Amino acid sequence: MRYTKEKNLAIILIAIGALLLLGKFIPFLGFISGTIMSYLIPVIMIAIGYYGIKRGNALFGYIILIIGVLYLLSKLAWLIGPLLAIGLIIFGISMLRGRGVKRY
């Protein structure tokens, strides 16, 4: 039996489906599968949007891509805020030391 892209996708879909089904019966797996799916759905939407853009259906692709990016940004807001704060602190310190943005 030779493995192709379609068979790999089928195996991934079966594994995700099994995880979701087991999550309904085992509470611990339900928490894990819910957490995984909450991040996996926006990533899949981004991939579908990118695929739509590459295949020539730009309007549909951009709509799905933008919705996926916004949804993923909302899920990662707990990480983006502190990273932005750290970046601002580092940028401010570098400006105080005189190594700020070079202007040409």
Automatic annotation (TrEMBL):
InterPro entries (alphabetical): LiaF_TM
Pfam families: LiaF-TM
Residue ranges the record marks as coiled coil: none
Keyword terms: Membrane, Transmembrane, Transmembrane helix
Transmembrane segments: 9-30, 36-53, 58-73, 79-96
Ranges for domain LiaF transmembrane: 9-101
This protein's record includes keyword Plastid: no
Name of the protein described by the UniProt record: LiaF transmembrane domain-containing protein
Species of origin: Paenibacillus gallinarum
